[in-house]
């Protein structure tokens, strides 16, 4: 059985299709053993999330090529978007899929991080399971204040000192490279343009504010709709259905209906068990969003 690791790089470009294609081509054209199974771009976030699977060696090489190309194409000094970010190649997580372990992903993340820091002169913060410094384990902590704050504070304390790379930031910014388990990026759009309600609901449901366990959430304005943007860090403990139901309840308390929901990237088949997409207003779902449908052998 082949070894498979998933990589879900987040690049700070969601408006220029030529740049998005250039980065994608750099990642997959040199190695047909790497599969690009999804690209999700958002103009308001000004961000693209790629989903790739491949062997540990091939996925490591593809990730480096993507970071290198993004650094050459994206200037953070000119970047405007609603999603927090610190770099052109903002977040590069590695996730064990099949016949691989978290230890395999930690090694890949650290190897990529070291190479990015040394060869591309980009500051690298190792996060998640790959973290070396406890201050870097939480991705939200690394991105607090975003590129603009990090540019001022880099190297001033341990929390703002990269694990690899220089103690200064160029136009490509910095990169957070890590290892983690599968998460589900799931967004719910409210039928209102009032961002205030998305922020209130996001605060109510995120774990750090006393809400649902294993849920991270932000309120944003996307496509002229208030959006509750969520990461479900453990879908077995807090499911898509659970967060949808809770967001609906909170929205109804304010007299607001839900407009539709959105899945970013792919998810395991198990995560959709017992869920009918129409019940959660997920209208663009298809079978190619199931990770296992891309496995071979």
UniProtKB/TrEMBL annotation:
Signal peptide: none annotated. GO terms for cellular component: cytoplasm. Residues 3-181 form the Formiminotransferase N-terminal subdomain domain. GO terms for molecular function: folic acid binding; glutamate formimidoyltransferase activity. Pathway: Amino-acid degradation; L-histidine degradation into L-glutamate; L-glutamate from N-formimidoyl-L-glutamate (transferase route): step 1/1. Its main location: cytoplasm. It is found in: Cytoplasm. Residues 182-294 form the Formiminotransferase C-terminal subdomain domain. It comes from the Bacteria. PANTHER family: FORMIMINOTRANSFERASE N-TERMINAL SUBDOMAIN-CONTAINING PROTEIN, FORMIMINOTRANSFERASE-CYCLODEAMINASE. This is glutamate formimidoyltransferase. It comes from Flexilinea flocculi.
């Amino acid at each position: 059985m082949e070894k498979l690791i998933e990589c879900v790089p987040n690049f700070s470009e969601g408006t220029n299709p030529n740049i998005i294609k250039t980065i994608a081509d750099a990642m997959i054209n040199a190695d047909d053993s790497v599969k690009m199974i999804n690209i999700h771009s958002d103009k308001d976030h000004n961000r693209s999330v790629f989903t790739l699977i491949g062997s540990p060696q091939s996925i490591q090489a593809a990730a480096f090529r993507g970071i290198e190309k993004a650094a050459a194409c994206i200037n953070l000094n000119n970047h405007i978007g609603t999603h927090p970010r610190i770099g052109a190649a903002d977040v590069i997580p590695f996730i064990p899929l099949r016949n691989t372990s978290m230890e395999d992903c930690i090694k890949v993340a650290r190897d990529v991080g070291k190479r990015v820091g040394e060869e591309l002169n980009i500051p690298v913060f190792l996060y998640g399971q790959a973290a070396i410094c406890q201050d870097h384990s939480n991705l939200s902590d690394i991105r607090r204040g975003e590129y603009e704050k990090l540019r001022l504070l880099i190297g001033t304390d341990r929390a703002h000192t990269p694990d690899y790379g220089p103690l200064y930031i160029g136009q490509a910014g910095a990169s957070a490279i890590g290892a983690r388990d599968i998460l589900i990026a799931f967004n719910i759009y409210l039928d209102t343009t009032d961002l205030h309600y998305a922020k209130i609901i996001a605060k109510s449901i995120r774990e750090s504010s006393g809400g649902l366990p294993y849920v991270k959430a932000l309120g944003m304005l996307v496509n002229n709709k208030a959006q509750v943007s969520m990461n479900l860090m453990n879908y077995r403990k807090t499911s898509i259905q659970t967060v949808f139901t809770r967001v609906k309840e909170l929205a109804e308390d304010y007299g607001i209906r839900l407009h539709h929901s959105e899945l970013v990237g792919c998810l395991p088949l198990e995560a959709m068990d017992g869920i009918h997409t129409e019940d959660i207003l997920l209208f663009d779902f298809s079978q190619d969003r199931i990770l296992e449908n891309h496995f071979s052998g």
